[in-house]
Design goal:
Layout lengths: L17 H10 L6 H15 L12 H7 L4 H14 L4 E9 L9 H4 L5 E11 L2 E5 L6 H10 L7 E3 L2 E3 L21 E8 L2 H8 L5 H25 L5 H6 L4
Antiparallel strand pairs: 1-2, 1-6, 2-3, 4-5
Helix pairs in contact: 2-4, 3-4, 6-8
């Protein structure tokens, strides 16, 4: 393996930024075994950077940390930067996902504006001589628990609210040295692996262009994030009818 390319800093993976370096040092992630460091960083990104929609997929890791929230692509950038910052090799695996898995997180009144297929990615980490797929960091535990409470009996294929999993009540999202997934059941296209996220987005672009991109950045994402925060705080019980219509069981 040409390992150096999986450890280098890039414009997006700016782990030499003071904010990134300070976080790594404060958490002492460099001072624990790599297996434990992967788990600690993974769970930090999953739960301390809650699910939400940033203005762009091209944000640097330090910008995602500043925002304090993210989705698959932006949280993945931060996860990669933090892991590389402690000397653990990472790469990005690019996909598209069907937009239906976002229904519910994206309110129905905005859903028509979503592209049919959405640029998606997860992180692969190199540990003990093999690449491990990490995707379960996308949805934070507090948000996931609210969706689980509404659909408590769903241990079957579930798609909605930013989740696409074979079993909603027990998704494979905790670090145990193996692959983790939370949206993988919604994959449409597989673009393969890239050493750097910068190259992936330069090659495949982003989800929106033109006026839709401007509207998303300055208005629509704030409405979506308000909805996501409401779900995280109050759950779905108040919107049971809408919730039921939003999900593909």
């Amino acid at each position: 393996m040409a390992e150096n390319q999986y450890l280098q800093t890039t414009r997006m993976l700016d782990f030499e930024h003071p904010w990134i370096k300070s976080l790594i040092e404060a958490k002492r992630w460099r001072h624990i075994p790599q297996y434990e460091a992967v788990g600690a960083i993974y769970h930090y990104v999953r739960d301390n950077i809650p699910f939400g929609y940033n203005k762009d997929d091209h944000l640097t890791a330090s910008e995602v940390l500043r925002d304090g929230y993210g989705q698959c692509n932006t949280k993945g950038t931060l996860l990669m930067a933090l892991l590389r910052g402690v000397g653990i090799a990472t790469r990005v695996h690019g996909f598209t996902i069907y937009n239906e898995l976002q229904r519910g997180a994206i309110p129905n009144y905005l859903f028509a504006l979503a592209p049919e297929r959405i640029i998606h990615s997860w992180v692969e980490v190199y540990l003990d001589g093999r690449w491990i797929n990490l995707e379960g960091y996308i949805i934070d535990s507090a948000y996931l628990e609210k969706v689980q409470q509404r659909f408590a009996d769903q241990c079957a294929e579930f798609s909605g609210y930013g989740i696409a999993t074979p079993c909603l009540s027990s998704p494979n999202i905790d670090w145990q040295g193996e692959d983790t997934f939370i949206q993988s059941e919604g994959i449409a296209d597989d673009f393969g692996v890239y050493a750097q996220p910068d190259d992936f987005y330069a090659d495949k672009g982003t989800n929106l262009k033109g006026i839709k991109k401007v509207l998303f950045q300055y208005l629509l994402r704030h409405l979506i994030n308000f909805n996501v925060k409401r779900i995280r705080s109050h759950g779905l019980l108040e919107n049971a009818e809408e919730a039921q219509e939003s999900v593909t069981p």
